[in-house]
């Protein structure tokens, strides 16, 4: 059971009312020079005011959107009814990571799911079989996960979030097939999570969500996809290769640039 999210109080956006000027009736006689100048000045002022007000229509109000929740209350206050407290959840998460995914089968709930950006959801048995037969440390003997920033989600108080920046040198045979290249792999920062049920069993693990694809030398890829890509042997499908802009997305961006040029030309 997770804690209900804190209520967000938002104030309505300020929407300026459009001012519509009503043209003055035409006069039979030509206006004086002074009257013409005054009329032009008034028209210019009205146009400027109206244009300024038009720019404010539907303009976002940052103060109406900005909100910071009370994490201490959500995690340690009465609203958190999950029986396992945040500090204990972090300890349980670290213990599972220290044991290794291949050795935590007994800690997984029956409804367990393993989820990556393009992998899964894998049920418990499929996950256990997959990680049990896959050894990365033979190919990367000095691999370090570099886990850090463990914290419990204030909106899901049974979920621990954490990050890693995996590094390792490819000095061994990877997956029994890929000979050592000597490549020093530096993965980008990735977000991971581990979710528990009330009995302390793990019900979900999420991995490989890259937080900054410009970092490291994996082409912006996380997880094992990044390791294979960094050593020059990417797996044979698009999801396991560095991101490449599609033709449709390139066309969409071209339309955006074209619209911006037209708008600039009208100014």
Tell me what you see in this structure:
With 267 residues, the chain is of the alpha+beta class. Helices cover 32% and strands 16% of the residues. The chain has a domain at 82-240: Roll (Nuclear Transport Factor 2, Chain: A), CATH 3.10.450. The chain contains 7 helices and 8 strands, in the order H-H-H-H-E-E-H-E-E-E-E-E-E-H-H. The strands form 2 sheets. Strands 2-1-8-7-4-3 form a 6-stranded mixed sheet. The longest helix is centred in the N-terminal third of the chain and has 24 residues, at 33-56. The chain is flat, with a radius of gyration of 29 Å. Mean pLDDT is 82; it is low at 1-25.
Global Rg: 29 Å
The third-level CATH topology of the domain at 82-240 is Nuclear Transport Factor 2, Chain: A
Number of helices: 7
What is the H/E string?
Answer: HHHHEEHEEEEEEHH
In CATH's first tier, which class of the domain at 82-240 applies?
Alpha Beta
- Overall average residue pLDDT: 82
Strand content: 15-25%
| Corresponding CATH architecture of the domain at 82-240 | Roll
Using the alpha-carbon principal axes, give the shape.
Answer: flat
Our measurement of the CA-to-CA distance between the termini, rounded to an integer number of angstroms, reads 56 Å
The low-pLDDT segments are 1-25
Structural class, by secondary structure, is: alpha+beta
Strand order, sheet with most strands = 2-1-8-7-4-3
Helix content: 25-40%
Q: How many individual β-strands? A: 8
Largest sheet: 6 strands, mixed
């Amino acid at each position: 059971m997770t804690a209900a999210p804190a209520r967000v109080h938002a104030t309505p956006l300020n929407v300026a009312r459009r001012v519509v000027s009503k043209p003055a009736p035409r006069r039979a006689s030509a206006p004086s020079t002074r009257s013409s100048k005054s009329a032009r000045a008034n028209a210019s002022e009205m146009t400027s005011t109206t244009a300024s007000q038009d720019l404010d229509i539907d303009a976002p109000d940052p103060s109406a959107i900005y909100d910071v929740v009370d994490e201490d209350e959500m995690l340690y206050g009465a609203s958190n009814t999950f029986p396992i407290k945040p500090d204990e959840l972090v300890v349980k998460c670290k213990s599972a990571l220290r044991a290794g995914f291949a050795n935590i089968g007994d800690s997984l709930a029956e409804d367990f799911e393993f989820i990556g950006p393009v992998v899964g959801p894998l049920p418990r048995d499929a996950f256990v079989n997959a990680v049990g037969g896959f050894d990365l440390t033979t190919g990367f003997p000095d691999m370090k996960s570099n886990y850090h920033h463990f914290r419990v989600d204030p909106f899901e108080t049974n979920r621990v979030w954490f990050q890693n920046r995996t590094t390792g040198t490819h000095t061994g045979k990877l997956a029994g097939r890929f000979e050592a290249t000597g490549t020093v792999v530096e993965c980008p920062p990735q977000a991971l999570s581990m979710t528990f049920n009330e009995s302390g069993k793990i019900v979900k693990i999420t991995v490989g969500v890259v937080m900054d694809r410009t970092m490291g030398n994996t082409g912006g890829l996380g997880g094992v996809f990044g390791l294979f890509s960094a050593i020059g042997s990417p797996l044979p499908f698009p999801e396991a290769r560095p991101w490449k802009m599609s033709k449709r997305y390139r066309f969409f961006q071209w339309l955006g640039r074209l619209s911006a040029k037209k708008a600039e030309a009208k100014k």
